[in-house]
Amino acid sequence: MVIRENYLSKIRPFIGKDIIKVLTGVRRGGKSVLLQQIIDEINSSNTIFLNFEDLGNQHLCEYNAFHDFICSKIGDSKEQFYLFFDEIQEVKGWEKTVNSLRVKFKADIYITGSNSRLLSGELATYIAGRYVSFVIYPFSFAEFKDVNQVAWASSSRSERPAADYTFDEYIQYGGMPFLSSIGFEPSVSKNYLQDVFNSVMLKDIVKRNNIRDVDLLERIISYALANIGKSFSATSISKFFKDEKRAIAPETVLNYLKWCEEAYLFYRLKSQDINGKKMLRVNEKYYVVDHGLREAIVGANLQSTEIILENIVGLELLRRGYKICVGRVGEKEIDFVGEKNGDKLYIQVCYLLDKESTILREFGSLLEVKDNYPKFVLYKESSFMGNYEGIPAMKIEDWLMES
């Protein structure tokens, strides 16, 4: 098991405090294991854990029954209790129970959910200002590398992989945590990732939004997966389906994509005019929460390495707490503009940095930005070393392994 210190270090300051800890993120992205790591770290006998996707707890998926059950467990105790509720969105009216438990007992409460709407609606009324949220992502490359070495050592393979091979494996399979338990075997891994995709689609998108046309949803998701990192609009998707003799309104496409975002399947990036410092009303880009899901559904990650590298870098920036967008300087584009705590950075991503035309293109966009914030060109393979007019080039694996 990989101890997810990146998240634990952010959660520790809130342990024992009267503030609800909310962990959200894509289904099977590691939220439940992280809850267990928090439980292990607290190590208290006054711990109550409930997973609301366990059929044994189905009778508690209504807020009064849920409330009465916890009250019966705590009783009249004045001691500190630690309450952990996994996939709490399955409980109708859960906000009322959680707020009541917070007021009624000396309770340190942790909840998880697989939909961003967990933090909207009535939650704002019941516990506004009394929660702190953390988005949990699948394994970063650094985490993947740690767990992959363990999986490899315990497998029947004769040699441990070199670092480059491990990164190729990450490009192909992604970072869904459970893959390490099945040794990254190709056919088994693909079946598992397809199952994850189906669970997200059916439980977190179809069921939650009462979608009737599941075939249309699948087609829109497949289109977005095939066009990861490319600018497109709801209108362009609508025209694509019209060419296939199927009429779909752009508003319908927008709703389906929004519901995919709420389920943490996709992340949408807007475009920013860097010199004008304003957001642009142009086509946006979508990135998938884990590129291994793209391999399982669309395939050919290793044949589409450049867009997968973009996806990996974009998600890593989100893990590191950056708000990101696509930068535009005139006709030129910058893959990622990241902003955190008032600071910025600019990143270009490419597979092969060797030809003069490629070097001029990748560095040229960054040279158009006239501020003094850090700028990088990240590559997988290169014959170019050092920097270009003061802008460094860096191997993607090395950047991913930085703390």
Task: Name the features.
single chain; 13 strands; eight-stranded mixed beta sheet; 403 residues; alpha/beta; 15 helices; five-stranded parallel beta sheet
Descriptive notes:
The protein is α/β, with parallel strands linked by helices. The chain has helices at residues 5-11, 31-42, 63-74, 94-104, 123-127, 141-153, 163-173, 186-209, 214-226, 234-243, 250-262, 291-297, 305-319, 356-367, 396-401, and strands at 20-24, 47-51, 81-86, 107-113, 131-135, 266-273, 278-288, 323-329, 332-340, 343-353, 375-382, 387-388, 391-395. Strands 7-6-8-9-10-11-13-12 form an eight-stranded mixed β-sheet, with helices on both faces. Strand 2, helix 3 (63-74) and strand 3 (81-86) form a beta-alpha-beta unit. Helix 7 crosses helix 12 (291-297) and helix 10 (234-243) packs across helix 11. The longest helix is centred in the middle third of the chain and has 24 residues, at 186-209. The two termini are 20 Å apart. The relative contact order is 0.09. The model is unreliable at 160-165 (pLDDT under 50).
